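Kindly review these tokens for lecture notes.

. . .
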Amino acid sequence: MNGKQIIPFLTTKSLHPENQESPINFLNEWQTPIKYFYRRNHFTYPFLTQHHFWIQISGQVHQPRFFHYNEILSMPSKSLIVPLECAGNKRVNFIPKVYGEQWEEGAISQGKWTGVSLKDILENVGLSQNAQEIVFEGADFGKKPGMHENIPFERSLPLEKALHPDTIIAYKYNDKPLSFKHGYPFRLIVPNWYAMASVKWLSKIKVIDDAYKGPFQTDDYVYYPHEDSDRDKFPVTILNVNSIIQQPIHLSILNIGIHEIKGIAWTGNGSITELQLSFDKGETWKYATLNSLLNQDYAWSSWSYIWKVEKKGEYAIYSRAKDSSGRIQPQTPFWNRKGYGYNAVSKITVKVE
């Protein structure tokens, strides 16, 4: 190989807007390098000005005001290792197929986010007793399919989640300023929720006294269980328990002998307590070795299993994770019209020669 390092690349799903998957099968670090962090956009990238170095807070507050970038940097900060997963990750696996970006397994990445607790910032302005939800507006905007006017990307959080001390306004990733493509100068980070909640290029925060009904809240990022009806719909929020087999890669050809099977597992409710593997299509299960990051409540767990294979043939390998709340990956996914939250048992097939 002439001593040259082989490096992976992002996998492009679309260019306008830019949506690219992380090379998740080849990432073994707790902190995804920014160049390998997946990219998910609804619109083209915003054109930033000096105006975007201020965050405006308004609505049901006692003292509406602006916070400048330097002021936020001067406030007490905290750092958290948090994975961000697109709600459409693994969408390609749904049967029947659903419309939307056909993400495989790489719409997830993890790193160290540093910023200021949103709770601390809101204490500076004082919430009205009428406050019910908090709306976050990014600097990115454009035309949503079926709409004629430009709209910003905008989402809300209930008070309880917004005021959790680990919901932060981040300005660093892996100890460096946020990259432009991942939200510079400010990005909301909402641990345990799918990444649509972690609004990029955060520019405005508005406290409201009712339920927010913007299109990215009540149309997109909603589970629709029925193909031709909105009946029984409910919002996308907490991450499902999930796992990925990173190595070997699906449809690999292996030699007879000993192989390490490895991957990651994550959840939005509690922590990963078990990772099991099956080599007989779910009839029996074997426990993998879990490795969790100490003192990091939100980080994914890595796992590994030493597999000794003595016979040639084709093998299906399944993985399923279980979390401390008792949730376990199901054999079949919860099908929904927009293809969110896929977390069925992860499967690969390999051939041994």
